[in-house]
């Protein structure tokens, strides 16, 4: 089952005590999508990601959170349904939120800007609206896993 991108955003923000910036939230959403696609072969989020200047972006989430700049996003997602805490989708979001605590926003940008990743394959400087196919996001997970196993 997929979850609404705004519900996923709400869950990540709640898990991180509403301290995420829009940039950080975008990266965590993308990483959660990539891991879910790679590990289970299914998308986590029902929305699409686009290749923007600062990495992969969920346009729906960006539209709700853009007004807060680099500051923390307040609860602008209060009106969307929550991801059930007993679901596998919640477990994936919780794991990503926990693992990403050790990275700065800049490090998250570097991770999602991997030169062999899906964003790099579709990014065109200054152009918004270029969709990153779910198949390319899944392939990024597989390529990262292969690279890590090769040492």
From TrEMBL:
Q: Name one Pfam family in it.
A: SocA_Panacea
Instruction: Give all residue intervals belonging to the Antitoxin SocA-like Panacea domain.
Output: 25-119
Recorded hits in InterPro entries, A to Z, give: SocA_Panacea
Which protein are we looking at?
SocA family protein
Q: What is the lineage of its organism?
A: Bacteria, Pseudomonadati, Pseudomonadota, Alphaproteobacteria, Hyphomicrobiales
């Amino acid at each position: 089952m997929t979850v609404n991108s705004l519900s996923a955003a709400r869950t990540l923000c709640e898990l991180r005590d509403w301290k995420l910036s829009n940039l950080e939230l975008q990266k965590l959403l993308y990483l959660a999508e990539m891991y879910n696609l790679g590990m289970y072969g299914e998308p986590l989020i029902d929305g699409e990601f686009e290749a923007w200047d600062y990495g992969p972006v969920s346009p729906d989430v960006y539209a709700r959170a853009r007004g807060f700049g680099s500051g923390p996003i307040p609860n602008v997602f209060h009106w969307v349904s929550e991801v059930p805490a007993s679901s596998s989708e919640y477990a994936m979001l919780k794991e990503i939120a926990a693992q990403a605590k050790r990275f700065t926003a800049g490090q998250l940008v570097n991770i999602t800007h991997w030169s062999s990743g899906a964003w790099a394959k579709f990014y065109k400087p200054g152009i918004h609206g270029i969709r990153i196919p779910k198949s390319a996001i899944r392939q990024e997970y597989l390529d990262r896993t292969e690279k890590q196993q090769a040492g």
